[in-house]
Amino acid sequence: MDVNFVNPFLKSLLNVLETMAQLELKPGKPGLKKDEIARGDVSGLIGMVGPQTKGSLSISFDKGLAIEIMRRMLGEAPESINEEVTDMVGEITNMVTGGAKRLLAEDGYDFDMATPVVVSGPSHTITHKTEGPKVLIPFTSIHGHATIEICFENI
Amino acid sequence: MDVNFVNPFLKSLLNVLETMAQLELKPGKPGLKKDEIARGDVSGLIGMVGPQTKGSLSISFDKGLAIEIMRRMLGEAPESINEEVTDMVGEITNMVTGGAKRLLAEDGYDFDMATPVVVSGPSHTITHKTEGPKVLIPFTSIHGHATIEICFENI
User: Fold this and answer.
1) Of A60, A105, B22, B147, which sees the most CB atoms within 10 A?
2) Rounded to a whole number, what is the distance in Å from the CA of A90 to chain B's nearest CA?
3) For residues A123 and B32, what is the distance between their CA atoms, to the nearest angstrom?
4) For residue A18, what is the domain's CATH number?
5) Which DSSP helix (H) or strand (E) runs through A101?
6) B115–A90: do the CB atoms touch at under 8 Å?
7) What is the pLDDT of residues B79-108, one digit of tens each?
8) What is the ipTM of this complex?
């Protein structure tokens, strides 16, 4: 999987959070996942299917960061990861993947998106079961971490 | 979503666990999900995209049940939900969805599967973010519970 495939997802998350929550995340260096495990308190997942490829994407947030995004969007912070927060994480997952899909379409890559699923639970781990490479993009902020993980087969 | 769409997933899970682990689960009554939340210690998720529909499926297992399936398959039980267990849950998720896909193709329903993702973490919850109905199928065994949740849009 080349870097041209990774950057649209990175840019798309920064763009979505800046637009929706005026929140600036600091992206770390994307890397091929080996032992590293995506871990968070609330994660959005989405499947992708294209003519030449299929894959999955996850975006995991620390609780503090998810709640700060809600506070900035609604002016009020929920005390816990409630249904409003999981709705927001599902929506962010959709918007980030949709934004990347549009950027990638310009380069001739094509895929359709399934519907998102949101997982919540303290420090859960996410493992993408694919034969293709797994790219992990870490993000930091003073409110906590976020991690995107993207996997595509045959790319 | 009609019952003809649900039964293939139910049958497919029973069949996969009987074949792979000689384990018989007792299916409960499938129901439309309202307040009920799919909860488990390890879950497999997969996205589905078809010409007329898209959706998501999850299969959640209690830790005790996941470990018992491993014991029956390998003759040895892992102490915790390790990589072997998440590999197995990813494989079961693929097999169950693939089995249901074949049954549904006979009825003219068609979809492609994304790659599976496995989540682990004690008592995590799963929320499918879709506008379509969400069907939940509970399964019981003396080793713990399993839950399938299926969501399709436009069906």
Assistant:
1) A60
2) 6
3) 29
4) 3.40.1550.10
5) helix A83-106
6) no
7) 999 999 999 999 999 999 999 999 999 988
8) 0.92
Identity (one letter) of the amino acid at B139?
F
CB distance A149 to A10 below 8 Å: no
Q: What angle do CA B79, B80, B83 make, to 5 degrees?
A: 115
End-to-end CA distance of chain A: 5
> In chain A, how many domains are there?
1
Determine which of B45-49, B66-70, B76-80 has the lowest per-residue pLDDT on average.
B76-80
Domain range holding A115? 3-152
pLDDT(A104) > 80:
yes
CB contact under 8 A, A124 and B124: yes
Smallest CA–CA distance from B117 into chain A, residue: A128
Average pLDDT, chain A: 92
Backbone angles phi, psi at A145, to 5 degrees: -100, 155
Instruction: Report the alpha-carbon distance of residue B152 to residue A114 in Å, rounded.
Output: 9
Report the C-alpha dihedral over residues A37, A84, B134, B138, rounded to 10 degrees. 60
Closest partner residue to A126 among B49, B56, B117, by Cβ?
Answer: B117
The rounded distance, in Å, linking the Cα atoms of A30 and A34 is 12
Mean pLDDT (chain B) is: 92
User: Which pLDDT score, from 0 to 100, does residue A3 have?
Assistant: 72
